[in-house]
């Protein structure tokens, strides 16, 4: 499974940004994007990578960490094999490299790196005036 994240850039505080994650090469025969859980992680300078949001296969479960759950929303467009992360009310603490990841699993709590086998390269989001 290959993932390609994009959409990062410079955003002013209070602004919004949409990140995209295009997914391809599904390993499970007959599977589609709908079957996979997708998660977004981020890594700020000098900090460990943290799980931000996830959505399970067929959107059965969703989870976002407290720091973003009222501001970030994930959505899935199966026809485009793309998952989005819509980020609103951005603040400087959201500055990080954002990564998308995929696997066949549930989404019951904060996504953990060890649970996801497939990763895309990151996209930098910088929130600054």
Task: Explain this structure.
This protein is mainly β and 129 residues long. Helix content is 0%, strand content 47%. It has strands at 2-6, 9-11, 17-24, 37-43, 50-55, 62-64, 72-77, 82-87, 96-103, 118-121, 123-127. Strands 1, 2, 3, 4, 5, 6, 7, 8, 9, 10 and 11 form an eleven-stranded mixed beta sheet that branches. It is globular, with a radius of gyration of 14 Å.
Spell out the blueprint of helices and strands:
Elements (H helix, E strand, L loop, with lengths): L1 E5 L2 E3 L5 E8 L12 E7 L6 E6 L6 E3 L7 E6 L4 E6 L8 E8 L14 E4 L1 E5 L2
Parallel strand pairs: 1-10, 2-11
Antiparallel strand pairs: 1-3, 3-8, 4-5, 4-9, 5-6, 7-8, 9-10, 9-11
Summarize the structure.
The chain is 0% helix and 47% strand.
Could you estimate the helical fraction of the residues in percent?
under 10%
Q: What's the SSE pattern? A: EEEEEEEEEEE
Largest sheet: 11 strands, mixed
Strand content: over 45%
The count of β-strands is: 11
Distance between the termini: 37 Å
* Principal-axes shape call: globular
User: How large is the count of helical segments?
Assistant: 0
Class from helix and strand fractions = mainly beta
The average pLDDT value, as a whole number, equals 95
What Rg is obtained from the alpha carbons, in whole angstroms? 14 Å
Low-pLDDT residue intervals, each spanning 5 or more residues: none
Highlighted features:
129 residues
């Amino acid at each position: 499974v290959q993932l390609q994240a994009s959409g990062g850039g410079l955003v002013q505080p209070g602004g919004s940004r949409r990140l995209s994650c295009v997914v391809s090469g599904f390993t499970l025969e007959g599977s589609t994007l709908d079957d996979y859980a997708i998660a977004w992680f981020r890594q700020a300078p000098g900090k460990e990578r943290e799980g931000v949001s996830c959505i399970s296969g067929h959107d059965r479960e969703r989870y976002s960490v407290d720091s973003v759950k009222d501001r970030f929303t994930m959505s899935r467009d199966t026809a485009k094999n793309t998952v989005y992360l819509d980020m609103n009310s951005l603040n400087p603490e959201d500055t990080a490299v954002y990564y998308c990841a995929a696997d066949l699993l549930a989404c019951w709590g904060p996504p953990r790196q060890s649970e996801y086998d497939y990763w895309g390269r990151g996209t930098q989001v910088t929130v600054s005036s």
